[in-house]
Amino acid sequence: TAYDVTLPAGTPYTVIVDPGSGSVELTGLTVSADATLQLLSTNFTPGLLNNQGAVEVGSDDLFLTQDIVNDGTIAFDTDTGAEDIQVSRGLTIGGTGLILFPDIASTTTTLHTINVPNLATTTIGSGQVVQGGPGEFRGGTSFPTDIVIDGELRADHTGKSITFVDSTTNNVLRVINNGIVRATNGGMIEFDDTWGIVNNGTLSCDPGATILFTTTTTDLTGTVIVDGTMRATNSLTFDGTTGLGTGLLDVGNGLTITGNANVGFGSITTPISLVVDNGATLVIQGNFSHAMTSEPLFNFNSTGALRMTGGSGLDPCDPGMPATLEVAGSDKGNTGSGFVNNFEIERLVIGAGANVMLVDAINNGNRNGSAGAAEALYVDELIFEDPSGRIILNGLRLYYNSISGTVGQLDAGADCNDNGQLDACDISMGVSLDCNGNGIPDECDIASGGSPDCNANGVPDECETGPDCNANQVPDECDISSGFSLDLNGNGLPDECENDCNLNGIPDDVDIASGGSEDCDGNGLPDECQGGFTTYTWIGASGGNWSFQPNWSPLGPPQGDVILANGDPGAMTTVVQTIATACALQLGSTGGGHTLQVNANASLYADTFTITSGGTLNPQGGTVEGGPLTVAAGATLRGYGHVLNEVISDGDVRAAAGQTLRLAGSTFSNNPGSLLEALAGAVLDVEATTVIQDGTLRAHANGAASFVAPLNNANGATLELLGGAAAAPVITNDSASLITGFGIIDTPVLNNDGHLVTIADSQATGDIVNQGTITVQGGTLVVLGTLTGSGTVIGDVSRSERGAPLPHGLFIVGDLAPSAGANLLLPSPDARLALGGDLDLPMTDHLAIDLVDATVHMNGLLAQSLEAMSEDIGAVEAGLTRAPGRFPIGTLRLGPAPTIVSVVDRHDNDGLGQAACEAVYVRDLVIEAGATLANETCRVYYQSLVMNGSVTMPANLIHIAPACPGDANASGTVDFTDLNIVLANWATTGPDGDVNGSGGVDFADLNEVLGNWGNVCK
Q: 0.70 cut: is pTM over it?
């Protein structure tokens, strides 16, 4: 401490200040050229430093407190530990030496820092060089702080930077460059949130290097040369600046060039705004474009200029030319308004030998102007610096007020594909083709619509060499794809070039394939183009093979019309074992019958097929298809397999027992007098979308007739179930038709407008809408849905058939809810109406309901309701007699399912209004265990009661005692109790004591008691 130290000259040597020495503070230090001083102590203060050798900073801090002379090297060490050089206020680093930020593994600039004090000026002398990176100059906290560079600062380590940065965020650090600040060899110089830079010297970046400004605004004077990248994240101003470079200027906000500045770049990125004024010139050596859409932000005023110097050589196809200039103004024509607030340039200078091509690569919001679709360029003064410069208009428009040069320097050459090369060059160099020789690249001919390219193969249609059958100079494939020509068969040949014998504009093969024309003999020629067909007649023996040639006259197998007509007394059979075809096929017999049998895996096709009397078509697992199939009266279609024809039957169609006959044509007609039948265990699968059922439809035991279309039993038709089933989406039995027998009616809705008669247990799987008559002659008709409608339901026990027991009547899983005009007639003690839902009867005519002897069984799993229909006349036997306003029930049974039956009064059945609740009169009432009668509102009168369940209002469950005159208490005996009741209620209106029902208790009641004294009515 307080010593002057000299490291003398001599043989090169190293002096180490080791960590154990603690802090070292000298008054002066001289390091000779032969000496190297390694500083490893915590803090080292050399005092007045004169360095001719090398000082290596490896300690935490090197304190420079006085001006120093550095003619050697001051360097940070190469490890990644943090070291600082602390500089005192006002210090100058003189000499001709080097301050080195070594290239270390880390890119973090804060590891090696030169700290300058607040409110001070630190100077890097004119002979000093600061070099390397990473590293940083840091200083300033609250007051302006300057770093003055009179020498040279050079960031020359690839990927590393030297950074100038505030110690805080107050933006008080300023860099004053009076020498050279240069980024080279891939290095970077960064001005990070500083106050700014005063450039009185040269600021430059070489190719591959970067200068970065992150300050809010940056004003640059002096000389600026950008051959690498200069990037400003905010606004950047060049004021009086000079320097021409070939690199990139990247400005994140506004760019201003002013004060007679003359700066140049290879290219600039699109700034948010651009101002060139006060005699300034923006020089672009490469391409100039921008994406601005607001004209006020683009300002070349009367003293500002854009100078384009790019492009090289006189050969227009030289790969180095031309440079491009984006046009951005609205094309208003050659009018004064086009030169105002329209991205105009006051002075456009084309440098000596420069070649510039106009482009409209970016939509600046001004396309589709009044005078042209593309954007245009407006220039007040157009200047060519020499006769070799030129502008290639590229099909765009340039408007100018004055020109220095010649109009001949404006070249109309185009670049239609925007590849930066003239179209003529594209063609001459083979980049683009020009098959039609019009001087326009084929791709541009196509894109502009000048040449069609219907097949999108990049070759104009007029240059195609493919097929053109109709000689219209358009490829066949394009005629087809454009819709000009049809290609119905998809073979790539326009239909007008195909065979079309009937001249209907449709190729013959398409006519045949679509069914528009027949080709029964399979020769590929529509039948209407032929004179007729050969008729083949069967001459073979019974059981003969269709395909055996000698069985036919002429020799077969047939390729035309076919006649199978047995006239012999014996039966005749023809067998199709593989494939058989015919144009018109007629099958019949005037003798013992003729059967055409189609075996399994065989097929029979006929354009038209008629089975006449005596003829039988008998598929045995095979397939019949083709045109309409007519089954005449006396003819039969029977068997199993597939019939794909439309069928019109006046004869018999029958599915063989235990087999499936599939009828899958579009229409099936079972005409009056015909029979459609599924034998025992058979399935008649009718897949026709239109079904006409005017004949008889019959399903035997375990057989089924199934329809995919609605089934309408119409025009007096009969659906007869003999233990089988009929199934359809909807079945309708019209007013003149009959459904009879026993079995299953499988449909979501049965509309019965005619007569439905069941003679044994039967089932309807859905709802029944009954507008006609349902007669249960035997067994039980089970309805799995609801029964509605205004028709009649009859339990006709007198006509029980087939030895069945007396009918059980109806079992309706859902509700019985007919209309007011309906009839429900079960006039027998053996008739039963079972319900899983509600009994909702709205009828008002007592003759429309006959349940007086029948059993009503309510046995649902959910809550049920029972309509109270009768006038409440009290507990008298008259209530059990059918009469106007009285609708008695013989037996009402509830349960044993845990049902709750609520007595309701929805309808005015007795015609007396709804002021008072109607009642239920039942001869025998049975409430099974688990069942509940809910009778809170309406009374239920009974003559006999079996109570194993429950009732919610016992007071409304009233017994009807047998008639016993004078028996006031209904005890069955007329005695003193009855006399006392009369006397106790003397002169009242009753009902207690009113034994004669006159409405008052008087002498007539007393005489009634005395006159019957002692009678026993039990």
A: no
